[in-house]
Amino acid sequence: MFLSRAQDTSRHPDHLIHFLPHPKARALVTLVLLALALGTSACGTQESPPPRSEEVAKAAPKLEILQPSAHLMPNMGAVYMTIVNNGTAADRLVRIESPLATGAETHETLEQDGVMRMVPRPEGFEIPAGGTVTLEPSGKHIMLLEPSPAEEGASTLPVTLHFETSGPLEVEARLRALTE
Amino acid sequence: MTENFPRSRAPFKALALGLALLLSMACSKAPEFVGTLQEPLLPGPSLESTNWDGQPFQIDDVRGKVAIVFFGYTYCPDVCPFALAKMKQLYSKLGDRAEEVAIVFVSVDPHRDSVEKLSRYVPNFDRRFYGLHMSFDQLDNAIEALTLTVQYGQPKDGPGSDSFYYVDHTGSYFLIDREGRLHVKHPPNATVAQLLPDVEILLASKE
């Protein structure tokens, strides 16, 4: 499985050029195929370096939280953001806290024939290795239960995101206008 | 200034063309709506209720205006606030004509959404919006008339408890014309840009 593509493809040129009668043509095709093999092997190495066993053991998520935002209503609030996992292992957002809310839950809004359904996602949201999960209006989101109004003049809301592997991450969610 | 008037006849030609185009548009069949035209055009539900300001409301009160009726609840975290915000954007696009458009938010959660609760919610968006609390009977009428789906989820701490529950509900926008007839329907994800032209068509027709 971890054979590099160069090893793989280098077996092929001789097979492939038997049908060519002229040695020059063979040489040319060999050259082209070799160049191709080198090219793909270069790409292959960039995409996925063959991991060594100690690296596999160290596979870990590396999370980045982009553009966290929140809106607060008298009874409800919601938090949105983009979670990017630049790491080599998946992670999962399992719990959220905010000092201004009595509770926070992971939810997903789904539309079905004009009906808006709120689906609780108590299992949280998985952020695959190398993947991105976007929390956005009418999609996956964090619901804040009965939030207190933000302090006068406050422009952000503190939120703690608890990830299964990465642990707690503190973010300041920008308080957004609903019309954005 | 008069000496600057162009002598070419081109502007007159353009004007004539424009007029011809307008005429042909006027003579063509019914205007094309972005949303779904509701045929036959029939009166919508009466929506007898209490507005957030404590005043009684029924749809006939806004007869002569175009009304946008939609459903939600104040504990709705994600969809409803954005629907109301969308209506606010629509109002700002309409400018002065907003006075001729009634925005009617109907709570599908009479149990939790008291008039008092609505009064702390709806005017946050715009004091001109209606935010209606109605009895379950009246709500049932609306559900039947508009073939809505309204489903109450289980309270978080189990049945019978007073804890949080969701209400799955139809998120469509129902456009009522000046004569009180349900005229056009838009899906929940309709944008202001999609709603506006239809509102304008309905505004253009006098009762």
Short descriptors:
heterodimer; A: 180 residues; alpha+beta; Immunoglobulin-like; 2 domains; elongated; B: 207 residues; Glutaredoxin; 29% helix; disordered N terminus
Secondary structure elements and pairings:
The complex is a heterodimer of chains A (180) and B (207).
Chain A lengths: L4 H6 L1 H5 L6 H25 L5 H5 L5 E10 L3 E10 L5 E7 L5 E10 L2 E6 L4 E3 L4 E4 L4 E6 L10 E8 L3 E9 L5
Parallel strand pairs in A: 1-10
Antiparallel strand pairs in A: 1-2, 2-7, 2-8, 3-6, 3-9, 4-5, 4-8, 9-10
Chain B lengths: L9 H18 L8 E8 L5 E3 L4 E2 L8 E7 L7 H15 L6 E7 L7 H5 L10 E4 L2 H10 L4 E3 L14 E4 L2 E4 L4 E6 L5 H13 L3
What would you note in describing this structure?
- The complex is a heterodimer of chains A (180) and B (207).
- Chain A is 23% helix and 41% strand.
- Chain A has 180 residues and is an alpha+beta fold.
- Chain A folds into 2 domains: 5-50; 63-175, PCu(A)C copper chaperone (Immunoglobulin-like, Sandwich).
- In chain A, strands 1, 2, 3, 4, 5, 6, 7, 8, 9 and 10 form a 10-stranded mixed beta sheet that branches.
- The radius of gyration of chain A is 25 Å and the shape is elongated.
- Chain B is α+β, with helices and mostly antiparallel strands.
- Chain B has one domain: Glutaredoxin.
- Chain B has an 8-stranded mixed beta sheet. In chain B, strands 7-8 form a two-stranded antiparallel ribbon.
- In chain B, a hairpin with a 4-residue loop joins strand 9 (173-176) and strand 10 (181-186).
- In chain B, helix 2 (80-94) packs across helix 5 (192-204).
- Chain B is globular, with a radius of gyration of 21 Å.
- Residues 1-6 of chain B have low confidence and may be disordered.
- The interface between A and B is medium-sized, with 25 and 30 residues.
- Strand 5 (115-120) of chain A pairs antiparallel with strand 8 of chain B, so a sheet runs across the interface.
